[in-house]
Give the backbone structure.
Amino acid sequence: MNHAAPTARPVIPIAPVPPSDDAAVQVVSMYQAEAKIHPRSVQGWFAAWRWLFVWGTQLLYYGLPWLTWNDRQAVLFDLGARRFYIFGLVLYPQDFIYLTGLLVVSAYALFLFTAVAGRLWCGFACPQTVYTEIYLWVERRFEGDRAARMKLDAGPWTLEKWLRKGGKQVTWVAIGLVTGITFVGYFTPIRTLLAETRALDLGAWEAFWILFYGFATYGNAGYMREQVCKYMCPYARFQSAMFDHDTMIVSYDAQRGDPRGSRPRSLPHAELASRGKGECIDCTLCVQVCPTGIDIREGLQYECISCAACIDVCNGVMDKMAYPRGLIRFATQNGLKERWTRRQMFGRVLRPRVLVYSSLLLAIVAGLAISLALRSPFRVDVVRDRGALAREVQDGRIENVYRLQVMNSAESAERFRIGVADLSGAVVAAGAEVEVGPTEARWVPVAVQLPAEAAHALGPGAHRMRFVIERLADRAGTSSVVEKSTFVVPR
């Protein structure tokens, strides 16, 4: 069978597009360098709340590793020993489900808060926002407020500039290192870690994570700042899926503010309409205080982190002009459009989306709390001893050997009794009782024997059985754990 040779396709050269004088033709760069943002300091009600969250979160973060509980660190994730201590709770890797539950609770809580009030988490409690606020405070102490910092950056490198910039950098690095040491202190006892740090005897992984976390804090809060919120954080991208027209967001009231323009302070508020003026004096202070550099007057934007700095500064301007506060305020899109009062906007909080998120969140929290309350104070894993298979011992009895890992979650030594069920005549010949130390996991060899008559009645093969492990504790009663296994009768 003959096949025709494929014909070659003509090659069409691609020529560059010649420059055109047509004004409609534009060259769009795929990269746009952005100017450094110098946020202006602001005072006000929301600024006070933001600093309250800064103090609260940092006291918790830096102070928690120093708390003690039962002569140990209260919160410690000891990866080497595979123990996770959270005050009176001791968890093992097998309790990973509780970490999963905690993450699910955090996710649904974020969804709920976002549906109700937008990105309040970002503006007040997110670590990126908190550390950026701290690093900005240090920057202002060394270099001054917005105008002074811009002038210093534009000026030549004098001795004063070197000292100011150098002092800021040293302080930033120190904060980053303290943050990194505290982070590692949740995984290595903080007092041991500090002693190793002073003696320059840190392990490789400890040193790596201190430097890595410290550098991440230094870079993100000192330099990247709004770039993290705008480009690196995925929350800014999918927040629109949780927003609706009844979500409380930072909003500019265009009906009150436009037309914008400057005017003398002596112009009475009652004469604004006759002069063709709105309440916005176009001072751009709302832009100058914004940590992400946006103009809130352009409407809802994904870059807005709801820090409310523009609300504080605008309210200050309104006070000076003797205008009513609230030109920029927390409001809903429906509320602005329909001119609703605050009470009417809050009346729309309990809508279907919020009720669904709230119900799911309550159900998960309740399930997690009940599971923790009913959690057994010890765990047991059963492994057949592959080095000793089923064998015949004295009097024709059949013996199987197992290895049981008994994990004691209590912070006191406990005794346990091991028995078998569902296998008539079977007894534990060795390892019937064992003592396990505080928060210790111990491997226990256990020999289970079955009389010859019972083994003959069962026949060769694997037969189901259960281990019943009882905790012997007079003060708390007796609790037990049941684990499935098999007993093998040889041919």
User: Anything to note?
Assistant: Confidence is low (pLDDT under 50) at residues 1-9. The radius of gyration is 34 Å. The first strand starts at residue 68 and ends at 69. The chain has three domains: 45-99+115-239, 245-353, 378-489.
